[in-house]
């Protein structure tokens, strides 16, 4: 049962500070409260106090209410809706608590605030030792501010700057911040307003020889989709979203299925710098992961400065180097679905550097300008045709007419150039590179024939014309033209200009000349007759001792012997002007009784079998119609022993006259 205390009211008129106005003492044998004041009213309209202590002293360390306990509670206040303990001071400490081993000031609230400390210009809360936050940590009264120590006295205030100059010997974490908010909240936000070397977030791994991987800044995001980022850096100016500098790895991002490092900025999304290691390394361990992804909607997505770029190799020796492996190297369009899709690209195979398009309907095009303002110069279509200056090559090689000084095609030698040109007048030119140069076609034996005007030449050079026209023409600078001509049922060779035609051998003088008057001269260039021979004349000659029919190869025939011989002439048709000379060489046998010669006759028949000598001036009507001679005893010849016949085109005529001696 509670013991009722006796309160003694002592009125003191002595000087200040001599004795307390009210003193309550509870001895060791009593377990009870020293002072217990309770306000029963629950309808207060003004501030009321169960216990109110006011000290108007202006001296330091004066206290309105003072409570002291070695291990318990110095002052205990409880209020369901107001303040358990309320202290107010104009210049010093509103509530002061001191404890040797327990709690100096303790506040407890079910739904309100356990302790509230407010100061207009001083400190709301001041601690001389350590400040400990338990439970859910520190509630933020100043939005967007950090609680920091500002001097060596332990003074703290809410600030925009998070302290970084601290160390902690813990194996796993120095600082761990978890954001469980499902809204657009951030676990760590680093901001700096510095104009000289400030850092929003600065991570420094100080160990120079770690035995395991260490990171200056390490970001890990467990999002299973592609939205999350391990480390996100954003810079609205022309600076760096994320800047990593290291002799090893400046920034390293690892993602199983997402993005290892993702940078987005109007200037530099991601920039890596290193002395001997790797500025930026991106690794994707998943089959559909992306080791490095660079994206920019306005500026370049990726820019490399000095140095070489290696793709599939860590030791590039050139500005861009691929690993030495055959297959597709670059895809410009297509190929996103899988690595077996045809596409526009570049590839490497054994001893082959490949440029390719997806199908035979596509083209490889070369030109100037840019893609939307392109001037085509050369095209290789899907069928393998090449067009130079033409976008629809229908031939294996289609070349438009050249406009340069060297023509359509120029082939350069050491000091000279050969030309091929298709001129504006639709003429084709092939020109050697120097004086006396040679244009040679099929210079090796057996390579084939050359056709002009024909696709099936049967000879080394065959010129085919249509109708009646010249084929090959040689002309000089003074207008002499000589050439071949095919037409009018015949093949022709001669001069096409008003000049004579001469034939020569052994690079000598003219052996045969046809003048412009169409006279033929042999060993003369000034023939004045249809045929003029300067020199000897040789004609065919044949001796007969049996019947014989003359041919186109015969000219002069002579019968020898004693037997009778018949010489037959060919048809005179298509042999107009043909001349044959028929003669006899018959030995004489004298008859002593008469003195006359003995002989055998030579008969001459035309192509119809008629005796040509019948009724001719060579027939005497007595001796018979045959060629003979008659020699008197005085040795004189009275009849001819040869005859000359010529074709009129329809008959044969004897053109020499009989004579009498």
Descriptive overview:
The chain has strands spanning 146-149, 156-159, 232-233, 243-246, 249-255, 262-263, 271-274, 278-284, 293-294, 309-311, 320-322, 327-333, 344-349, 352-356, 363-370, 373-381, 386-388, 397-399, 409-412, 417-422, 428-431, 450-452, 461-463, 469-475, 481-487, 490-495, 501-504, 510-514, 520-522, 531-533, 541-544, 548-549, 556-560, 565-568, 579-585, 589-590, 597-598, 602-605, 642-647, 652-654. It has 661 residues and is an all-beta fold. The strands form 14 sheets. The protein has a five-stranded mixed β-sheet with strand order 31-33-35-39-40, with no helix packed on it. It has a four-stranded mixed β-sheet with strand order 15-16-17-18, with no helix packed on it. 9% of the residues are buried.
Helix-and-strand structural type: mainly beta
Model regions low in confidence, pLDDT < 50 over at least 5 residues: 1-17, 588-598, 618-624, 628-638
Mean of residue pLDDT values: 77
Distance between the termini: 209 Å
Number of strand segments: 40
| Estimated helix fraction | under 10%
Radius of gyration: 66 Å
Beta percentage is 25-35%
